[in-house]
Write a structure and sequence with these properties.
Layout (H helix, E strand, L loop, with lengths): L2 H14 L1 H4 L1 H4 L7 E5 L2 H11 L3 E5 L14 H8 L3 E4 L8 H6 L7 E4 L37 H18 L4 H25 L7 E4 L6 H6 L3 E4 L11 H13 L4 E5 L5 H10 L2 E5 L7 H5 L4 H15 L4
Parallel strand pairs: 1-2, 1-3, 3-4, 5-6, 7-8
Helix pairs in contact: 1-5, 4-7, 4-8, 7-8, 8-13
The site of zinc ion (ZN) has 6 residues, from loops.
Length: 317
Amino acid sequence: MKKLTILLIILTLVSFGAAGCKEGRQHDNEKRRLRIVTTLFPLFDFAGKVGGERVEVVLLLPPGVEPHDFEPKPKDVVTIQKADLFVYTGRAMEPWVQTILKSIDSKDLVVVDTSKGITLRSADEDHDGHRHGGKGHGPDMNSDPHIWLDFGNAQAMVGTIAEELSKRDPKASDYYARNASAYIDQLRKLDEAYRTGLAGCKTRFFLHGGHYAFNYLAQRYGLTYVSLRGVSPNAEPSPAHLVGMVNKMKQYQVSHIFYEELASPRLAETIARETGANLLPLSPGHNVTTEQMEQRVSFIDIMKTNLTMLQKGLQCK
Ligand SMILES: [Zn+2]
């Protein structure tokens, strides 16, 4: 992170003062909702489902913003400092978290790393041997941070949120456990829908014109996944990788290529033109648009739409 940003953050923290931020907690009572600050949309949705009426959830990422380049501004740090819980994906997705936490003086803040207990997949290379390292992944540069796209992991993440929320608010632990279990049940059904929905497809070659986000999903349902870009959406593919992709498409008679709605579809469009393939949108779910937020689109809604697109693109029965 830039030195100037850190300096700005420290100055802001000093001027706000830790004491002032604790004011709200002095009046902690039954009516006050717990404030949860989350980094990515799946966490925002999970925390809301588990916390229900007892919480107020904030998504740090502004709508439509690509998360891999996100760095918190001083006002975001103040938002985190004022929270009761801060929920993030993990070190591989948000390498800036450790630095920020060092500058926050809030012994009451419960910090939740939802990757706890989850084995991260390597993002080193795909089947073409194309390297997928990218900027913005800090010490876990070679780990694939998109853990929520394995719905078994998503269930574990919901469990972790419920556990940590109960630590902060033990009197409602039964309520959180019930909400978590009901939501985990929905995630199980989603997983089952994917398993049956992707069982009988004409091709299992999943070609993605976006960044390397869907490998957890592909591995869970036995698909061969190749993406045009690396883990970070800004990592441009080499010309050789593009040519390899076009050849693979011809070899496997791939009729559809997927693109990301929040990233530029330029490369996917080029390949589609070259090969005569059709384009289909697919959302990794890190973030949503302002419109989707207003419509209260859920993580499960997004994943159901993805399943429909995958079934179409892979020509499943
Ligand atoms: Zn991503």
